[in-house]
Amino acid sequence: MTSGGTEQALLAGPAMVPLVRAVAALGEAGLGRYAIVGGVAVAVRLGRAHRATADVDTVVDESSLRAQAVEVVLELPHAQPHPEGGNKVLLEGTQVEIMPVQSLYPGQLEDVPDDDALFVASHSWALETATVVTVTALEDPTVVASAPFATAAALVAMKLHALGSRRGDAAVKRASDVWDIYRILLDLDGDGAVRSALAGGPEELRHLVRDAARRFLSDGVTRSRSWLVAGDESMDSVTADELRYVAAPLIAALS
Fold first, then answer.
1. 220-246 per-position pLDDT tens digit
2. C-alpha dihedral, 167 to 120 to 225 to 229, nearest 10°
């Protein structure tokens, strides 16, 4: 939804209140170029919280910061170190994970394994193409945040990377990844907007997304369908044919 030239999103449910509050606080950190990605960004682009999510994932260009992004965020009054350390902090009581990314230049990903290359390319592109959305938590309309969020196309690319990188006991995460891709393509690519955006992206990204989509949503769609069993009833109701159907136009546009 757009109002006065600004994109708007209204997110229902009590779980959205602390997430939107954390996004608002993050905007006060002075991070420079950053973008919200992950489940919160998916909810914003779909206009609803179509699955549970409890944290905020963020990509940051650290090149112009005086310190690492985590240290900058920890200077906020309601920020605390995360017990796990690393790139995670607690902001307004909500887990925020911060991933540093850099701008890509042609040929940078030559000789880089595909899974690693797709991580770099998709997250860098998410930062480059993010747009500002004003988000309101309907459970408490006083909780509002304006922030740059990853586009639907960038989210598909990042979710395809996630499917290839999950290790160990990650069945629920894989179910969420497949479900996110399916809902984005079904709900937002009917007019070709998502596939057109990806087709217009960097060449390296186009090829990597095409190959990953074939791997998980065409040649290996049966396995991807099996991951949905770990999700809720809505996820488990999606068939392999339905996954293949929504992915076919994307694969064709990138081939």
1. 999 999 999 999 999 999 999 999 999
2. 50
